[in-house]
Write a structure and sequence with these properties.
The complex is a heterodimer of chains A (315) and B (546).
Chain A lengths: L1 H28 L4 H6 L6 H10 L6 H13 L5 E2 L4 E2 H36 L3 H15 L2 H15 L12 H35 L2 H8 L4 H38 L5 H10 L3 H29 L5 H4 L2
Antiparallel strand pairs in A: 1-2
Chain B lengths: L34 H5 L12 E8 L14 H10 L4 E3 L5 E3 L2 E8 L2 E6 L13 H12 L14 E8 L2 E6 L6 H5 L9 H7 L16 E7 L3 E6 L12 E8 L3 H10 L4 E4 L5 H6 L3 E6 L4 E6 L9 H10 L2 H9 L3 E2 L14 H10 L7 H10 L6 E6 L4 H16 L3 E6 L2 H4 L1 H4 L1 H4 L4 E6 L6 H9 L13 H11 L4 H18 L3 E6 L1 E6 L2 E2 L17 E2 L2
Parallel strand pairs in B: 1-10, 15-16
Antiparallel strand pairs in B: 2-3, 4-5, 5-7, 6-7, 8-9, 9-10, 11-19, 12-19, 13-17, 13-18, 14-18, 20-21
Helix pairs in contact in B: 8-11, 16-18, 17-18
Classes of the chains: A mainly alpha (315), B alpha+beta (546).
């Protein structure tokens, strides 16, 4: 266990380091002039320009800028956001909770509804299964930005059930504000998880062990829990883990559609404005979250199936 | 004199809105599509009958600063103008009245004396002094601050506090444009002690600001909202704030904004993106008001060494453009075809003279044959014309395509040069980016209601928007005469003569004079429809509709 965590930690650091170079380099090469963004396209005097360039170290060569960034980051200073004129750590602190809540809410929807629908669909062939199939096919085909527009159009504009914009204040208000975004974010992943769950449960149900158990007269509920679900859980876990990791990536689109003040929407804005330090910090945070979620999935393999050794799972 | 390429998505490119309430194929044109009614728009909405507790107001993006020295675009101007007072005040009709300076008088043509209004306090209770005024004006001239308004003070020699209540501005040459600038961002007064204490943090989310206006800064959470609370001790009883709390929210996406206005989550906005205009006009919970504005949409010839160096080619392009169709598509009919180069909303003085000049100017009628003839006369047939565009910006892409079609139709070898939306701004800032193109599009405005405020930025040598190096000595003389002319009627005569030269020379080709657009929830009224929201605390009039 200790070795596993150590290995995972080293892998995380290496991934972050490579990602930090890639992101910094890509942003450096991308078109756009940070000064033009700062001045909104207004012509400024050469003196004013020089002051801005010096203030944000825009004239330093790429390796120097990267080195400065890296050394400050290692001291916990992630730099200063040129466009929001705040420390990057403040920018992130103000937005991280919205994104975490949104992803967590969507993950709960994916796990509960996805696995629920999948199991139901596997155990009740016929009409239930067909409806579930139709439902998941439609969901799988709808990208989250379209889902967002549809949900807003129906539930916010037409029916006035739920709010369409912003993150709300206080628990119940926040829950109401995040419901439509979480559904939009979860929809595709939910369909995928339901499909995989259905297939795995079907496969396990027709397996020899289950047939034997049925012939021995073991109650169906126990068979489902001990044999079917337990054995089907590894593929389900893999897909659920991966799809939850993709939620972290998709969150930008959903946050923008619902005008949420989260990390994803901020990342998109910062990238358009060439706000280096913000892009760098948020991207790395997302990369880290992605790696950590995958690590947790690996860890759960070992819990579910002792035959899986952590040492090999980590490689 | 500040400008920016305004991102305005055109209706035809915005059927994303179909998802919300359905996009009709035909865009309804305004019933008030005749020129007289678009010239005489009311700058106000009906007065409010009472107060309301709170309102959420949308901006097209988050404000990035509260420092007036570096504010020049819609979000920053709207927010700062609501919180802060300038020395002079722009009224909704464009006229200029007293502000924090209760009196202003040119003692001589080169000495402007400002009397500081007594009894005014900042939000923290400290009294407004002549020192604060001198400090605030000098900030614009301090190159270390990187402010944007240094150039408007180019005739200012000294700014001094004569005594506790008088500030004297001495000039190197007469400058009667200065009062206009003092009614805009360069004339905003902030508290000296506060700004000095905050240093570099002044105007940022960490530092905030300290002004005298009808609203004080309550809480600024970038990305979420900027909250203001009413200043109960506001000095101006005609602008006692009616809405107790205002939250400004940046919403870049037109469809999202439309949703917010429809559901009532957003109470109002002066919209700059007209792509969902006709949809908003059909929404029962909001009303859309048109008002006078200082904005005009242009094609900017930026390279006069190519085919656009010939006046006849510029005239031919202007003659061949189908403005009526464009205005119907882009502004649902709510724009004027330019008989003069600036919007009638800029007539802040001598209105009758400008109106007469407008009526006397030839109507803009499309004449393709005459345009083709001009191109032949200029020997420009088959010569190249490159128009800068960005397919990532719906508004720019649509108007550039229209220009491409026009240029091809009159016989030029026209091409588009596409850049990313992030790089489009470089046409305005970077001479290197302009090297490859002959022209590009923008919507822009001056700081106060005077046609010269905008014209001077692109026709005077060294003007901050003179990208092509255009120069016409007669035009320069007329504008300099206007700037040095104390009498508004005489100044208007100079400006009208300048307008005639501009319309003949077409250093920039005006496309349309849109109205401003105020969208308000039907429960609210009182906010002005006019562009004065960019420079004065007019939002204080927002309140309940009886």
């Amino acid at each position: 266990m200790g070795r596993f965590l150590l290995r995972r930690g080293a892998l995380l650091l290496a991934t972050l380091w490579v990602a930090s170079i890639a992101i910094f380099g890509a942003l450096y090469l991308a078109p756009g002039d940070p000064i033009a963004v700062l001045t909104g396209g207004r012509q400024i005097t050469p003196e004013a320009r020089a002051i801005l360039v010096a203030r944000y170290h825009l004239d330093d060569p790429l390796p120097v800028r990267y080195w400065n960034w890296l050394t400050s980051a290692l001291h916990g200073d992630f730099g200063y956001s040129m466009t929001s004129r705040q420390d990057v750590s403040t920018v992130i602190a103000q937005r991280v909770s919205t994104t975490v809540e949104l992803v967590a809410y969507a993950a709960v929807i994916v796990i509960v509804l996805g696995i629920g629908v999948g199991v139901l669909s596997a155990l009740k062939p016929g009409i239930v299964d067909n409806i579930a199939l139709l439902f998941t096919t439609v969901l799988a085909a709808v990208p989250s930005f379209v889902a967002a527009l549809l949900l807003i159009s129906v539930f916010a504009v037409k029916l006035h059930w739920l709010p369409a914009l912003g993150e709300g204040q206080g628990f119940s208000d926040q829950l109401a504000h995040l419901t439509l975004p979480a559904i939009a974010l979860a929809s595709t992943s939910l369909a995928l998880v339901a499909r995989i769950t259905r297939a795995s449960v079907r496969a396990e149900s027709s397996g020899e062990r289950v047939q034997t158990a049925v012939s021995r007269g073991i109650p169906p509920g126990v068979i489902l829990r001990r044999h079917v679900l337990h054995n089907a859980s590894i593929p389900i876990m893999t897909v659920t883990g991966l799809t939850i990791a993709t939620l972290i990536v998709l969150v930008s689109i959903v946050e923008q559609a619902f005008s949420l003040n989260g990390l994803g929407a901020t990342l998109v804005k910062a990238a358009a404005n060439k706000d280096f330090s913000v892009v760098q910090a948020i991207s790395l945070l997302m990369v880290a979250a992605f790696v950590i979620v995958n690590g947790i999935v690996d860890l759960l393999y070992a819990v579910l199936d002792p035959r899986v050794s952590l040492g090999t799972a980590a490689s | 004199m500040m400008t920016k390429g305004r991102i305005r998505a055109i209706a035809v490119a915005a059927c994303v809105a179909t998802m919300l309430t359905g996009c009709s194929g035909r865009i309804p044109t305004s019933s008030s599509n005749d020129s007289a009614s678009l010239i005489n728009l009311s700058p106000n909405t009906p007065a409010a009958s009472g107060g309301v507790d709170s309102a959420t107001w949308a901006l097209y993006r988050d404000p990035t600063t509260l420092d007036p020295a570096t504010a020049f675009d819609y979000p920053e101007n709207t927010v700062i103008a609501t919180m802060c007072d300038a020395l002079l005040r722009q009224k909704p009709d464009g006229s200029i009245a007293s502000g924090l300076a209760s009196e202003y008088r040119y003692r001589t043509p080169t000495a402007l004396a400002l009397t500081i209004r007594p009894g005014v306090t900042f939000w923290d209770g400290k009294p407004l002094t002549a020192d604060d005024v001198v400090f605030s004006l000098e900030r614009n001239r301090d190159p270390k601050l990187g402010g944007f308004y240094g150039k408007v003070f180019d005739r200012v020699s000294t700014i001094t506090a004569e005594d506790a209540k008088t500030v004297l501005i001495t000039l190197t040459q007469p400058d009667y444009w200065l009062t206009g600038e003092l009614s805009a961002m360069p004339g905003i007064v902030v508290e000296k002690a506060f700004a000095q204490q905050q240093g570099q943090k002044f105007g940022t989310p960490d530092g905030g600001t300290m002004c005298t206006g009808p609203y004080r800064l309550a809480k600024w959470t970038p990305g979420e909202s900027l909250k203001l609370a009413a200043n109960s001790a506001y000095w101006d009883s005609t602008l006692t704030p009616l809405t107790k709390n205002i939250a400004f929210k940046g919403i870049p996406d037109a469809a999202t904004l439309t949703t917010g206005l429809t559901t009532g989550e957003i109470d109002g906005s002066w919209i700059t993106d007209t792509s969902n205009l006709s949809q908003l006009q059909r929404t029962s919970t909001v009303s859309v008001h048109s008002g006078p504005t200082l904005e005009t949409e242009f094609l900017i010839p930026s390279n006069l060494t190519g085919v656009l160096g010939d006046i006849r080619v510029r005239q031919a392009l202007s003659l061949a453009f189908d403005r009526r169709s464009f205005i119907n598509a882009a502004y649902a009919g709510n724009a004027l075809e330019p008989r003069l180069s600036t919007n009638p909303g800029t007539w802040g003085y001598a209105k009758d003279s400008f109106n007469a000049a407008w009526n006397a100017a030839p109507e803009v009628t499309r004449d393709l044959d005459r345009a083709k003839q001009l191109i032949r006369e200029a020997g420009a047939t088959g010569k190249p014309l490159v128009i800068g565009t960005s397919t990532g910006m719906a508004t720019v892409a649509t108007v550039s395509n229209a220009w491409l079609e026009v240029a091809t139709a009159i016989g030029l070898d026209a091409k588009l040069s596409n850049v990313s939306p992030e790089n489009y701004i470089n046409f305005f800032t970077d001479p290197k980016a302009r090297e490859g193109v002959d022209a590009f599009s923008t919507t822009t405005y001056g700081d106060y209601a005077d046609p010269a405020a905008l014209i001077s930025t692109y026709v005077l040598p060294g003007g901050n928007q003179n990208y092509s190096g255009y120069e016409n000595p007669a035009l320069t003389d007329l504008l300099n005469a206007a700037r040095a002319e104390a009498d508004p009627a005489a100044r208007a005569r100079d400006v009208i003569e300048a307008e005639k030269l501009v319309m003949h020379d077409l250093p920039w080709i005006p496309v349309a004079h849109p109205t401003s657009f105020l969208v308000l929830n039907n429960k609210l009224t009182g906010a002005p429809t006019s562009f004065c929201y960019m420079q004065s605390p007019a939002l204080a009039m927002l309140g309940a509709r009886g």
